[in-house]
Write a structure and sequence with these properties.
By secondary structure, this protein is α+β, with helices and mostly antiparallel strands. It has helices spanning 2-15, 26-44, 79-93, 96-111, 152-166, 172-187, 237-252, 255-271, 303-320, 329-338, 388-400, 410-419, 450-464, and strands at residues 53-55, 61-63, 65-67, 71-73, 122-124, 146-147, 198-199, 231-232, 280-281, 283-284, 301-302, 345-347, 359-363, 366-370, 383-385, 427-429, 446-449. The longest helix is centred in the N-terminal third of the chain and has 19 residues, at 26-44.
Length: 470
């Protein structure tokens, strides 16, 4: 009883902002986690699932735009992101409450799995809603497009794998869902190792050839209507897929997943553009030339996707033990370094061969190519921070097999605890930043974020694990 009263007292101090870093202990962390987890599970979830953002009174929900009260989001930072945070909390505390919360989220994803085996960006539990898709359970209709865009299917699979493992592989619907999804993912891999952005069934065979520059005027020619069927790197598709295959191999031990990972690495080696731009494009045709995607996404060598591919190749090399996947990295890093913008960032697109940063200007619903970055549409990320320093450190560690260890400080934990309010909420305030899903808030508006909840719960969970802090 004394321990419980002490924990309650500490929690009161924390919510009032009085708890200093020196006062942080295991009891205060455990109590804060349970308080935040209870609020999010009992007050925020819909059928066990989550969207991106919520108004403080929970009357409004946002995913990619306004979400209905019967919708949840699959795309991060939606249901898989929150569910994984609950799993990490279960791992750190052994409290069944968190495993039950994660299981609820997993079952919500199982409900919305498509007949093609993967997921689209959201799930609607109202069978009459126009937002439903062709769910495997027969309670939907319409599109059957399993998507790898923005980690949609990949995050769902990764979370379900970890939930399946935590449940001892005994929950038949969850285990069956994972197996169906992984089989579908393998069938969506092209023979050269690449993946499309979207699939509805097994992909057609294509030749394995290296990337090259188009031999036509790419500004006016070579547009592909169904670009989503082609080889896709956009929004870190290959990084998400690599992480998914690794988790599948590590949990289930099936060599098919390791073989698929190696093929993916071989595709990324093939997809590196030749000099003078040895980076990677967002999207490739079957003859391995950069192509248009959406009307504001021109073919070009991409700064951000190149950074993502470098990280993915290092990950594949680490898991497979094969350093051949590291071979393209020095050339790509040298290209990134000489392509930095004056503000130290990288452009989303560099014009083919000339390497000039390439942008778009918007006129109504039309877009026009430009080299001028003074009036860019605000719905898209035209520039990204350079990650050369972090990638350089990771590359040196990869070559030396040195692990990357990061500790969590007591001060960091104190900040997380102090930010939790008396209702068990971590409240964000909009300051004009570009939010995932582009929710329409006014500056200063308070809101709840699934990303913030997941990040903070995961941070507290890591703190409880041995060796996570000094």
């Amino acid at each position: 009883m004394i321990r419980i009263l002490l924990a309650l007292f500490i929690a009161t101090l924390t919510s009032s902002g009085w708890l200093s870093a020196q006062d942080v202990d295991r009891e205060s962390v455990i109590h804060a986690m349970r308080k935040a987890g209870t609020f999010f599970r009992e007050k925020v979830s819909v059928h066990g699932g989550y969207v991106y953002h919520y108004s403080l009174d929970l009357s409004q929900h946002w995913g990619e735009g306004v979400a209905s009260k019967t919708q949840i989001w699959v795309q991060p930072p939606g249901t898989p992101t929150v569910g994984m945070a609950f799993l990490r909390a279960y791992e750190a505390t052994g409290d069944r409450f968190y495993l039950d919360a994660a299981t609820d989220a997993a079952r919500a994803l199982v409900y919305g799995q498509l007949k093609s085996g993967g997921w689209t960006n959201s799930i609607d539990f109202d069978p009459k809603s126009p937002n439903v898709a062709d769910y495997r359970n027969g309670k939907g209709r319409g599109r059957n497009n399993s998507s790898l865009d923005d980690g949609q299917t990949e995050s769902a699979i990764q979370f379900l794998i970890q939930t399946d493992k935590a449940l001892g592989f005994r929950d038949i619907p969850i285990h069956e869902s994972v197996m169906i999804a992984l089989d579908a993912l393998l069938s969506a891999q092209y023979p050269n190792g690449g993946f499309p952005q979207v699939w509805t069934g097994p992909v057609p065979a294509q030749p394995s050839i290296p990337a090259s520059f188009p031999d036509y005027d790419w500004r006016t020619e070579g547009r592909v209507k169904n670009y989503w069927d082609m080889y896709t790197l956009n929004d870190n598709v290959t990084g998400y897929v690599a992480a998914t295959l690794i988790e599948a191999f590590q949990v289930y031990g099936d060599s098919r997943y390791l073989d698929a990972l190696k093929k993916l690495g071989e595709f990324l080696v093939l997809a590196q553009m030749p000099e003078p731009q040895p980076g990677w494009a967002q999207q490739y045709s079957y003859d391995m030339k950069p192509i248009w995607a959406r009307k504001f996404e021109p073919p070009g060598v991409s700064g951000d996707e190149t950074q993502e591919v470098i990280a993915t190749l290092m990950l594949i090399s680490e898991i497979t033990g094969d350093r051949k996947y590291l071979e393209p990295i020095p050339r790509a890093a040298a290209w990134l370094k000489r392509s930095l913008l004056s503000d130290g960032q990288v452009a989303r697109y560099y014009e083919l061969k000339t390497n000039r940063p390439l942008y778009m200007q918007r006129h109504g619903d039309k877009y026009e190519l430009t080299y001028d970055d003074s009036d860019l549409p605000d719905h898209y990320g035209w520039k990204s921070p350079s990650k050369l320093s972090e990638l350089g450190t990771a590359f040196a560690n990869a070559r030396s097999s040195k692990p990357d260890r990061r500790e969590i400080s007591v001060e960091q934990i104190g900040g997380v605890l102090n930010a939790l309010d008396s209702n068990g909420r971590w409240v964000d305030h909009f300051d004009g930043e570009r939010l995932v899903g582009q929710a329409k808030f006014t500056v200063g508006q308070a809101y709840l974020s699934s990303q913030t909840f997941s990040d903070n719960l995961t941070t507290l969970s890591k703190y409880l694990l041995p060796g996570s802090h000094p």
